[in-house]
Amino acid sequence: MKILTAAQMQRIDRITTERYGVPSLTLMENAGRGVLEFLAERFAPLGGQKIAIVCGRGNNGGDGLVVARLLREQGLTPRVILLADPKKVKGDAAVNLERLMASGAPETAEDSAAWRRVKDGLRGTTLLIDAILGTGLSKPLEGFLLEVVRDLNEGFRGVSVVAVDLPSGVSADTGQLIGECARADASVTFTAPKLAHVFPPACEAVGEWVVKQIGTPPEALEEDAELLLNLTGAADVAWMAQPRKLDAHKGTFGHVLILAGSVGKTGAAALAARAALRAGAGLVTVATAESALPVIASLGMEFMTEPLPETDSGTISLRALDGGRLDKLVEGKSVLAIGPGIGSAPETAEVVRAAVNKYDLPVVLDADGLNAFAGCMSGFRASGRARILTPHPGEMARLAGLTTAEIQAHRVEVARDFASRYNVYLVLKGFRTLTAAPDGQVCVNPTGNPGMATGGTGDVLTGLTAGLLSQFAGRPAIDVVAGAVYLHGLAGDLAAAELGQHSMIAGDLVEALPRAFRALGEW
User: Is the pTM of this model over 0.90?
Assistant: First the structure.
């Protein structure tokens, strides 16, 4: 599902009318019907609600006027407040105002004095529809409309509030709040979500949101090369759970080699290995520092282990490259995952850099594998080979030479720029984890929860990603990586539903992966 800016939405609406012949008035009618459908589903019976609809003079208000007319046609009597002189309502909104007047004119409140008289009559409202401002807002609310929004927030606590498109005062084009805004329990948007629906903190004001289709053909979105931001949904990744062929064998699903672990950091390697197996990889081998191997091997019966020479601190030594030792381990493998628990010793970092730049198979890089390139991305060589980097914001800051605050303030832009510049697939972890591809496409992940904020969950993602890449070599890497991120978050959500967020540990995600696959298989 595409995520749009206000300008992109306006362009898609224009294309829908000009190229596909759907009148703009029909789009507005369908939008109002979509809102009514949501209200009827969520707040039934509507006859038992005391409904108020507050409308602005623009197209968002026009959508609200359609809702009001449709409710009246059902024999209901919503209070309808128009925050403008009816003569100043133009275009499609004016047409719908005229249609509404056939069953009675709305109350009007053009200024603060009129609003104060009207708002007292709204006491007892149980369902409030915010149709004041939609996606076109680009500057903070002020004056009369700010007063109205403040009154709605403060005077209608306990009332269910549904926003048409977006809560008034929220800018469609950013997850940041540009000023004071209305607070909604739910929002009904049209054709596709906007940035504010998806990203925090604006999404907290939006509440639960749904998308209603109003007549735009899917190809209008699919054929627009400028729409590069996507929201991953279950339908997009259900292919991961398709039945396997009857004649499949372990070689069919690839062999993952995980270069990971060190003395004191053995659990990370084991978690990655177990996740790769739970992802469905046919074979998994962990190559690790020789003195760490016995502990790692004891943590899993199904994966294999290989010892590598180690440094005095118990990390993988540069001697692992001597005599083609690592070359032989890589031979015949499908995917190489590097980083979980590998440590930050200078020799180990050299091994990481050599492996990433040398081998042609897909590489998943995480943790200290990423830190090996901090400050020296100039030495990174993707050369058209699949390279998947999975940093959290702190690691991303070190790779990009920015502060963590700068990363968090511009997540989409940073991820897209970095992926394009270095020709990598970048997974920028956090709330709404992003997967950016070299061609500029960015996938936003909706799954996951705060219970996953615990050590080891990133190691699980590394193994999961590698395990899926080993099986689906024929699919575009962006699809597989975004699918791994979705499945990882879904497993976290299922674990949280069973255990609660406070007590979750990384191993719970591994154990929840079978249920996550089953859930996808139901699509």
Answer: yes
